[in-house]
Every structure is written in C-alpha cells, then in structure tokens.
Design brief:
single chain; 26 helices; glycoprotein; transmembrane; membrane; cell membrane; protein dimerization activity
C-alpha cells in the first residue's frame, strides 16, 4: 500500500511570477519552513499541490501541553502522539502562521492565494473502515466506535454513538406506535362514529363560495375512516409515552455517553477556542385556499370532489420545497449573525450558529404544522360571517376533525424529506466523484515502481514515487469538500427528525417507525459518504455532543406542550369524552335494551350514538343556499338550511356545550402536562447521568496519575540527593588538591 506520510495537502493555483498572490504564497511557505514543516511540491496542470509534513521533533514541545489538557483524564496513551492529535496540532500550526501583512491561512484562501487545505485519507485505515463499517452489507452489524474515534476523532465518533443509541431506543416507540395504528385499524368498520358518518343524510354547507356545492355528510365516509386510524383513545396514552420516552432517551444517552467518554479519556475535556418565516406561513395558507378553490372550478368530478385533500397534499409538497430553500437562507442569516457577534473561538461560534440555525429551521419546518394543528377550522367564521383571506374563504375542518389534515401534512413532509434527502445525499457525492476520478485513473497506469528497493527510505518505510503521490493526492482532492460545519448538517438533520418524532406524534403514531427505518439506512449512508466520497474530516476532541444536548432537552419540553395541545385542542378526544359522560345516551340513562341497537353491541357503541350530529350546527338561510353562497346551479334553490361543524345556536352564538368543552380542554392540557412533567422528573431522578463504574474509573485514573507523578518526583529527588552526596564527597579532595 501507499503509506500516507503527509499531514496535510495545500492546493493553490499557479500564479504569474512577481505578482502579489505569488509573493504571499512564497512568504507563507517560507514561514512554514522556519517552523521545520517539510514541503513537497508537485505540479499538475494549472495547480500546484504542496504536501506538508511536520517532523517528529516538533511535537515534543506540544506533548506536555496535551497531557496537561487531559490532566483529569490522564492515561499512558498521552505519552505518545496519536495520528488524530498529530493532525490537530499541525492544523493549529498552519492556521496560526502569519505573513508580514498579519494574514493567516484562512484569509489567504479567501483572497485566492491558496485554494484549499485538507488532511489525507490513510489507505490502510480507510480500507479497514470500508470492510467493517462503510458498506451496505454491514447494515445490521455493530459499529466500530473505537476505530471511528481513532480515524475521525471523538466528535464524529460521538455523533455515530448518539445516532446508534437513538435508533435503538426508537424500536419500542416504533412498536407501540404501530400497535396504536393497528388498534385503530381493528375497529375500522365497527366504530359507531364511522357508521354514523357513512349512514348520515345530513346536508353540509358549501366549503367555498360560488363553485363549491353542498354535499352529503355520507360522502366523507372514507375520510372519517382514515381519521379514526390515529384519532382514538390510544393516541393519548401514546403521546404520554413519547413525552416520557424523550426524557428517558436523554438520560440513558448521558449514561451511555459517559461510559465512552471515560473510556476515551475525554470525560472532563473542555474546548473553548423571524419575520420571513411568518410571511412563508401566510403564503402557504393562501396557496392552499386558492388551490382548493381552483380545483373546485374544474370540470373534473374527481378534482372537484377531492379539492380539499389535493390542496392539502400540494400544500405539503410546497412546504417541503420551501424548507429546502429556507434551509440555505437560514444558514446564510445564521452565519452573518455569528459574524456580527465577533466570537473569539470556534467552539463559541459553533454554539451560537447551532442555536440560531436550529431556531430558524424549527419554525420553518413547523410553521405550517402549527397552523393546521391549532388554527385550521377555528378562525374561519360561520355562515353569513365567514373570514376571508385575499378574497377567499379560509379552510374548514372536516366533520370528523382536523387531525387527518395534520397527519397528511406530517406524512408527506417526513416521507419526502427522508427519501429525497437520502437519495441526493448519496447520489450527488457519488456522481461528482465518478466524474472527477478519470485523471487519477490515467495516472494509475503510469506508475509501477512503488515497491522497488530504491523507492524505500532508510527506515524501511515505503516512500511512494512522485506519480503515485500525485495520484493519491488527486484522489483526495477530487473527493467532496468538508469543513468545520460538515458534521453540523448531519446533527441538524437528525435533531429535526427527533423533533418530528416527538412533538406532533399524537397526530402521526407511525413517525417513530419511519424514523427507525430511515436511521438504519442513514447510519451506513453517512459512513459510506464520509469514508468513500468525502475528504477526511479534521479530527476534533470533545467529551459530548455539545449544545445539541441542550437543544434536545428543549425539544423534549416542547414535545410535552405540543402533544398536550394537539390532544386537547386538535383532537376530538375531549368532545367525545364530554359527550359520552354528559350529553350522550349513557349520560341520559339510556341502556342497551332501550336503544334501537341490538343488545349484543357494546356499551361504547351505545354511549357514542349521535355524537356526529351533536358536533354539527344548523345554518338557516334567509332565502336559500343558492343565493347565500352565490352558486351557479339551480339544483339547491329549494334548500334553505345546511349543517356545519361547530357548537352554535340558531343566532350563531356559541352554546353552553362549547364553553364546557373549552374549559375541559384547558383543564386536560394543564393536567396532562403536569402529569407528564412529574413523570419526566421521576425518570430523570431514577436514571443518574454517571454510572458508578464511570466514577470509579475516573478516580482510578486520577490515582494512577498521582502515583506516576509522585514516583517521578521521588526519583528526581533521589537523583538530586545522590548527586549532592557525590559532590560533597568530592569537595574535600578538591580542597586537598587546592592546598597542594
């Protein structure tokens, strides 16, 4: 194999002699030579490749500093320079080398003096990782975290450790979510609510003016069946489970991380070096309203019947593309805000950038979901007094509830985001790498002398010929670019997915299952991309996943609040509960023998009989529906009343039942959140962050370090005592020699 003997590769475009850029190039390289950095230049077409190699002697000055930095995690390995530490040290030297104009390498790259700088892949370790980890056939094999740490550094290793732990804990959530979905599916055809909708002869008011016609409630039978799949009694228990699961996940993750942080000796390591979104939400609402109206005007019966459903689907697709555009806008805005803060260290800049970027992305992703969950069908007004936006009536909820709209929105966004993103994430680097490696293939045919004796140096190590060096350097150069924020993109993608999985899970119980399936693929996809198609990431040392831990904790709190609001406000759980125990047949003392239904049917069926009609109010027209809604057809000229979803009297004032349900909704939200928060605190208290074994290992490490230092101090003192005694014995002899 061709051994990578260079720490970094510096690439620059060839410059005309005596130009300002060429002078700065020469000056910077001279500064590196003063620091004993060996430079090997190789020309290729219009570029010059500079292999940088630091001599082993240069690390003696830094070895003690590394040991001090890890003082609380001292171990014998710190007596030598590992490859990861070597790269970190050389990177520090290069970035802190200044020319006479006080410009560093970063500024020189911005000026075009140098094109790029990156560390090279090591072929032996790269091949080992490809065989064990970065391949699709290893989809269900354990990940080699220790080897990932040695090659990519602790920060990358902790990302995969966290992603692996997240994926494992998604298994119980995915199983329970699937059970909740199957529970709704089991009562698909026996639910009294579905039967009431499908057998109804109620005429519903038109959903829009001029073009939308009144429909029979029975025409929405399929929609009612879909709603029952996830808007049922099991949803409440599942939402509570997911809120507690989020806390348990974070607590167990801290314990899991502590074991590896202690093992890798980085436990105490510390490195200290919205109006646009509101406008987008408004635009999405207008788009859906106008789309529904446009579909209703078409001559196609299918498009006219499914106008609301198609508008919801197209709105979700538009929201996905808006997310992709705003991701780039949010990144640019976050970086500009970080530049304005003038932060002193990279760690501080990363923390600030992470908080800003996640905040922008969170509201970009969830703005449409918030509208569907908490505003759709609640601010649209009522007959004779509808609320209009840009001349169009706002959307209304389906008679079976608004949760189906939220389910469709989440399903489309999650499926599109996961599938399309993964396809592009793999295909784009693969295609770019395929197109760029033709040059390296041509050079491969020219090389055949790497293993001959005259290609070896005096230590017996393989020193590749110039053609092989060029081939290896070009292979690394043509890989995808990486920078300090490369890993940030992977973390952001997974934390956003975690937000989807926990926040609106009451409306989409299958979210954990989709996340689990995605993560199984995502782990190998990221591994293949990092090992095969991207330049080697700069190894960075860290003891945890940083600010992302705090972000996940905030998401966990939001999950409790949002799920409580979804169940209390968006779901029909509370109205069904109130009807069952206060307004329904069972509350009025009607038993199964008094009911028109057979005695063999369950009490649940009896108690919920008439619920759908109870949620509908009747609108009486001054003339008829045709004139009131400006319909073009004369088919409804004789119809003087229609029903709509709300709790209102004939004069459109709110009924006492509405206020009772509203009070119970708020009471349930407060109770739900308090119960879940108490459960979260209990779970956090029962699961300490640091296992006892980790604490004991840290104490043992400190004791070994103290013993080593005392032993060294003892031998130094003993050596000094012996030298002093020998000097004292020689002193009389010197005095006698002096008298002589």
């Amino acid at each position: 194999f061709v051994h990578t003997t260079f720490d970094f590769l510096l690439v620059a475009n060839k410059q005309e002699p005596h130009t300002e850029k060429s002078k700065k190039q020469e000056e910077f390289l001279e500064e590196l030579k003063k620091k004993n950095i060996a430079i090997t230049p190789i020309d290729h077409e219009d570029k010059i490749f500079l292999g940088l190699r630091a001599p082993n002697e240069i690390f003696d000055d830094y070895l003690y500093l590394i040991k001090v930095s890890d003082a609380c995690n001292w171990c014998k390995d710190e007596n030598t320079i590992t490859q990861a530490n070597r790269i970190r040290i050389v990177h520090f030297i290069l970035n802190n080398t200044l020319i006479s104009t006080k410009e560093n390498l970063e500024k020189l790259k911005m000026e075009g003096v140098f094109e790029t700088m990156f560390c090279l892949h090591e072929k032996k370790e790269q091949k080992n990782l490809r065989a064990k980890w970065a391949r699709w056939s290893a989809l269900f094999t354990p990940q080699p975290f220790d080897e990932i740490k040695c090659y990519f550094g602790e920060k990358v290793a902790l990302y995969y450790l966290w992603l692996n732990w997240y994926t494992i804990l998604l298994i119980p959530a995915a199983i329970l979510g699937s059970v909740i979905f199957l529970y709704g599916l089991a009562f698909f055809n026996t639910s009294p609510l579905i039967k009431e909708v499908c057998d109804s002869n109620v005429t519903m008011c038109p959903s829009c003016d001029r073009v939308c016609e009144p429909r029979q409630l029975s025409e929405t039978c399929t929609y009612a069946k879909v709603s029952h799949l996830f808007d049922n009694e099991g949803t409440v228990a599942f939402a509570m489970f997911m809120a507690i699961w989020a806390t348990a996940f974070l607590e167990f993750w801290q314990r899991h991380r502590a074991r590896y942080a202690s093992k890798w000796k980085v436990y105490d390591w510390c490195e200290e070096e919205l109006m646009v979104i509101i406008g987008i939400t408004h635009a999405l609402v207008v788009f859906r309203v106008m789309t529904a109206s446009w579909f209703s005007r078409t001559e196609s019966d299918f498009l006219e019947e499914k106008a609301s459903m198609l508008a919801m689907l197209l709105g979700a697709v538009l929201h996905y593309f808006t997310i992709q555009i705003m991701t780039r806008v949010n990144r640019w805005v976050s970086l500009k805000l970080c530049d304005l803060e003038k932060l002193n260290s990279l760690a501080a800049k990363e923390r600030s950038f992470t908080v800003k970027m996640f905040t922008f992305q969170f509201f970009t992703l969830f703005s449409s979901l918030f509208y569907v969950a908490f505003f759709l069908g609640r601010i649209n007004g009522h007959p004779t007094n509808y609320v209009r936006l840009a001349g169009f009536r706002l959307e209304e909820c389906h008679p079976s509830g608004c949760l189906t709209d939220l389910f469709i929105q989440m399903a489309v966004i999650m499926l599109l985001k996961q599938t399309v993103n993964n396809i592009f994430e793999l295909l784009v680097p693969w295609a770019m790498n395929f197109l760029r490696r033709k040059t390296a293939r041509r050079l491969k045919r020219q090389c055949g002398k790497c293993y001959r004796k005259f290609c070896r140096n005096k230590q017996g190590l393989i020193d590749a010929c110039e053609i092989c060096k060029k081939r290896d350097w070009l292979r690394n150069y043509h890989l995808g670019n990486t920078d300090a924020f490369s890993l940030f993109n992977e973390f952001l993608e997974m934390v956003i997915q975690f937000s989807f999985t926990t926040t609106f899970v009451a409306a989409f119980p299958l979210a954990p299952l989709l996340a689990l399936l995605n993560n199984i693929i995502e782990i190998r996809l990221d591994a293949i991309k990092m090992v095969r198609y991207e330049r080697r990431l700069l190894p960075r040392k860290t003891r945890d996943i940083g600010i992302w831990t705090k972000v996940l904790e905030v998401v966990g709190v939001f999950a409790v609040i949002i799920n409580g609001l979804v169940i209390g406000i968006s779901s029909d759980f509370i109205p069904r509960l109130v009807y069952r125990y206060h307004y329904g047949p069972c509350a009025k003392g009607i038993n199964s023998t008094q009911s028109v239904m057979s005695p063999a049917q369950s009490s649940d069926i009896i108690c919920m009989q008439g619920y759908i009609n109870d949620t509908l109010s009747v609108a009486f027209m001054k003339t008829n529906i045709k004139d009131e809604y400006m319909l073009k057809t004369d088919d409804y000229a004789h119809v003087t009343q229609c029903s709509y979803r709300d709790y209102r009297n004939q004069d459109y004032s709110l009924t006492s039942q509405f206020w009772l349900i509203l009070a119970i909704r708020f009471g349930f939200i407060i109770l739900f959140e308090h119960v879940v928060v108490v459960c979260k605190f209990i779970a956090a208290w029962f699961v300490p962050e640091n296992p006892v074994k980790v604490k004991n290992n840290r104490l043992i490490d400190k004791m070994e370090r103290l013993r080593s230092e005392l032993r060294l101090l003892y031998w130094n003192m003993l050596q000094s005592t012996v030298e002093a005694a020998l000097a004292a014995r020689r002193l009389p002899e010197l005095n006698r020699d002096g008298r002589r």
